[in-house]
Amino acid sequence: MSEQWDFFFCHVDDKPASIFVDLGLHDQAPIATLPHRAYLSVALHHPRDDGLSSQEEFEALKGLEDAIHQRLVSPTVMYVGRNTSDGRRDFWFYLPDGGAWEKLTEDFMARFPDYRFEADAGPDPEWEAYLDFLYPNDEGWDFITNRQVCDRLEEGGDPLTEARDIDHWAYFPDPASRDAFIARVRELGFDIRELLQPDEERAEYGVQLWRCDVPSHRAIHDITIPLLRAAREAGGDYEGWETQRLAETPAG
User: Fold this and answer.
1) Which are the contacts of 201, defined by CB distance < 8 A and separation ≥ 6?
2) Which among 5, 69, 1 is positioned nearest to 31, based on CA atoms?
């Protein structure tokens, strides 16, 4: 287990989900000595209407996860992440063999008799549960990087309440792919700041575009996801955004 944990929101089986995952394991996976995946699935007591966890249950779930670290994780049980969706929280692990998992989780959950739970283990030598489910895809990474940029703006005193020009970048293998992307994003109200030609640093054809928006935590994902999908459909990559930091105006 590494120190590089982060979370993102997505959908699992068409339902809202939150995934918290150890990103630092990616370069090690799959770990040959831990070829079995296992999970412990707990039914939430007070889920929100969308099936995610509520503030009302925060302390109880924190206590459960703290106990997992203290009593369930061991040199042969690696905790790799959790997903919360549809009124349940699933904790995911990798271990050498799943034969003792049912007894291990029964003994552990005896400390939490108020929680209904399910547990299972099975072979996963390629770590598909981690790599294909828990680890963020491009939209998951978009959520993570958006939050990081918004956090930096807030740390600099920006309340993220005012609209301003937000610049975005995308890159493509050829001009035709870039042109297809540009045509699509113009329909979304974006204007082109600059066309970027291949150079010594990178061989792709780029475009810098902009639109006036509010870069809030609540709004930014709805701004960037259409750009990410449009770039992907055109055969390219959306590579993020930046904007001017605005300081909060003192009252009076």
Assistant:
1) none
2) 1
Task: Give the residue from 19, 9, 20 showing the smallest Cα distance to 146.
Answer: 9
The whole-angstrom separation of Cα 87 and Cα 48 is 8
| Residue range 226-235, pLDDT digits in tens | 999 999 999 9
Q: Could you report the per-residue pLDDT of 99-128, keeping only the tens digit for each?
A: 999 999 999 999 999 999 999 999 999 999
b/e sequence 67-76, b meaning 16+ C-beta within 10 Å: ebeeebeeee
215 within 8 A of 200, measured Cβ to Cβ: no
Complete domains list, the chain, with CATH: 5-134 (3.30.70.260), 150-243 (3.30.70.970)
My answer on whether omega of the bond before 30 falls inside 30° of 0, hence cis, is yes
Strands 36-43 and 88-95: antiparallel
Buried b (16+ CB within 10 A) or exposed e, 149-185: bbeebeeeebebeeeeebebbbbbeeeebbebbbebb
> Please, which residues have CB within 8 angstroms of residue 203's CB and are 6 or more apart in sequence?
none
pLDDT of residue 201: 87
* Residues 141, 182 contacting (CB under 8 angstroms): no
The answer to whether the beta carbons of residues 192 and 208 sit under 8 Å apart is yes
203-231 tens-digit pLDDT: 999 999 999 999 999 899 999 999 999 99
Query: Measured between alpha carbons, how far is 178 from 233 in angstroms, rounded to an integer?
Result: 11
